Amino acid sequence: MLTNAHVPIVGFAAWSGTGKTTLLRRLLPILAGCGIRTGMIKHAHHDFEVDTPGKDSYELRNAGATQMLISSRRRWALMVERPLEREPALDEILLDLDQEFLDLILVEGFKREKFPKIELHRPSFGRPMLHPKDDTIIAVATDTPPKEAISLPLLDLNDPQGIADHLIASLATHLAPARSLSAEKRIETG
User: Fold this and answer.
1) Residue of 34, 43, 6 lying closest to 166 (CA atoms)
2) Residue 148's domain is classified under what CATH number?
3) Which residues is 68 bridged to in the sheet?
4) What is the tens place of the pLDDT at every residue in 42-80?
5) Residue 15 lies in a domain
């Protein structure tokens, strides 16, 4: 159970190469267009670098800074060197997001953690479904309906608008204030 999620959180779980990032890249602008302020957490199975060698922030971090915050007028980024020998749990990572300014958190990966997820499934890949072994899956987005009957909502993996509509409807009571505020802003500026 996630104790550090203060806004709705929904994951997108699938085997590698299924198209999680591709779907999320198409889904995020739709949610933003509805006025939903969405935070994103992506799990990486390998080390990664977000800084560039030769840049001051990279050189300062390389020189020994265990936390490096770089800030400008439009954005900021915090890079933290974790001394952990284990993968941090999703609930720990949630503490790093400023949830006061979010209506929704989407998560790519962390498929073994217990929180609501939409499974992405492509039968042509020959991999088994995560559902029903994972009882936290709330819907299945697929490009081909499964042969076996499932009791969860089936979504079209190639229809990000339909997936957004499902998310918004499922989380209506939590997202209603954000959508109302967004509509008011559009009327004022429209």
Assistant:
1) 34
2) 3.40.50.300
3) 79
4) 987 656 667 788 888 888 888 888 888 888 899 888 888
5) yes
